[in-house]
Amino acid sequence: MFPQTLLLLFLSATASIATVVKPKPKPPLKPYLLHTLTTFSPSGRPGSSPWSLVNLTFSDLEFNNNVTCGAKYTWEDPLWNNVTECAHTPTTKDKYTKYSFQMLKPTASGEGASLLNNFMLHLRHDAEKGVYVATQRFNFDSDRNIGGLCSASGVCSFGLREEVRPYYIHQTKLER
Ligand SMILES: *[C@@H]1O[C@H](CO)[C@@H](O)[C@H](O)[C@H]1NC(C)=O
Ligand SMILES: *[C@@H]1O[C@H](CO)[C@@H](O)[C@H](O)[C@H]1NC(C)=O
Ligand SMILES: *[C@@H]1O[C@H](CO)[C@@H](O)[C@H](O)[C@H]1NC(C)=O
């Protein structure tokens, strides 16, 4: 055979292999867009409310849902690892769509962990198509995506820093 013919055969062979073997790249999932994230703890003075709070709102751009989450806890019963269900709009009443969040300690030792300003936020979306998760660290000192203060009275209030809003959090689909 002529070299040209061989080359053509080779090219068409590689082309067909490529179309068979190469999986179609999936477009990346659209992120979560965190609008607000606030934490609060009371002064602990006699007569003051015992409740500490975590509140957040985000949009799930992949599914076009807006999600509102909130949890309260006390120092005796902290929120670490508890799964808290969120509310979402538009409200779908199917048995799948559910958003929840967890506050996780940022390191294995838990040293320096704080439900106010040093934690991992873990978001989970149970959907008909599967389970989607996202995790992001929020931290006052190093990541500096959280700002705020504790006042002299002992009341602490922190939140997503204005400069980083809205905050993009990459989500992934869990493989089953
Ligand atoms: C979600 O919120 C964004 C901005 O707050 C708004 O533009 C959008 O219309 C809302 N989407 C739904 C589905 O409610
Ligand atoms: C924050 O979360 C708490 C506890 O779920 C809830 O009672 C409160 O209404 C929330 N606040 C806001 C501003 O969403
Ligand atoms: C966390 O979950 C445990 C076990 O279900 C429960 O006893 C505790 O009251 C929960 N704490 C909060 C702050 O939700």
Automatic annotation (TrEMBL):
Keywords carried by this UniProt record: Signal
Signal peptide annotation: 1-18
Name of the protein in question: AA1-like domain-containing protein
